[in-house]
Design a protein that fits this description.
Length: 232
């Protein structure tokens, strides 16, 4: 859905997280609402930069994988409806920018943002929950939302051309089991988590089960399905 707001999901297994980071669109931030209203074109997100690092690079763009903390407030009375620091043991949230995993206003508000930057953004109802609101998230109809955001990391997204090329060591435009196996080993070493020895093989098998549609033992660029704004 194009319009969503952060909501905590049940904890995911290592297999699920690895698959999401490698080949599947992330869904850590999700809700069924969609912004409505004829005033959407006339309204826009207001952005106030609270802190800008001296070295501001890389800047976020559509398809990037972001890591951030943010608090959400109702503009009407200043009440807080969401705090990422109280969810998931206080870990910052990961999501892909510009693909509808957060509300439209946040997708807009976090473009061209760099690691270490802090922003305060005001999002009109038409770019948040519109006329229907979101009762489960304690957001009333026609609510203007304010988010205070601190961005920690900007990484290449799981379906970017860069990510595909990083895995495709022999540059043959398809991913072999050996290439993905090596990529998983590198990712596991990078995050430093203790995993059962069988986790690697289970994740590798699941990746091919879900993505090798023609069963030829490779994941092609088409099967990898990079975001439409990228080209291979």
């Amino acid at each position: 859905t194009a319009g969503t707001v952060p909501r905590q999901r049940p904890p995911r297994s290592d297999m699920g997280r690895a698959l999401s980071l490698l080949l599947l669109p992330l869904a850590l931030l999700a809700a069924p609402a969609r912004a409505e209203g004829d005033t959407a074109a006339a309204e826009e997100v207001r952005i106030e930069v609270l802190h800008l690092p001296e070295a501001c690079s890389p800047k976020s763009k559509k398809g990037d994988l972001l890591n951030a903390h943010y608090d959400g407030f109702l503009a009407s009375d200043g009440s807080k409806f969401y705090c990422s620091r109280t969810q998931n043991e206080g870990h910052p949230k990961w999501f892909v920018l510009g693909v509808g995993q957060v509300i439209k206003g946040l997708d807009i508000a976090m473009m061209n943002m760099c690691p270490g930057e802090k922003r305060k953004v005001t999002i009109p109802p038409s770019l948040a929950y519109g006329q229907q609101g979101y009762a489960q998230g304690k957001i009333p109809p026609n609510a203007t939302l304010i988010f205070e955001i601190e961005l920690y990391a900007v990484n290449k997204g799981p379906r970017s051309v860069e990510a595909f090329n990083q895995i495709d060591k022999d540059r043959d435009k398809k991913l072999s089991e050996l290439e993905i196996s090596q990529y998983l080993k590198e990712e596991f070493a990078r995050d430093g988590k203790n995993r059962h020895p069988s986790a690697h093989d289970e994740i590798l098998a699941d990746i091919f089960k879900k993505n090798d549609h023609d069963g030829d033992g490779f994941i092609s660029a088409k099967e990898y399905n990079v975001y439409q704004h990228d080209e291979l």
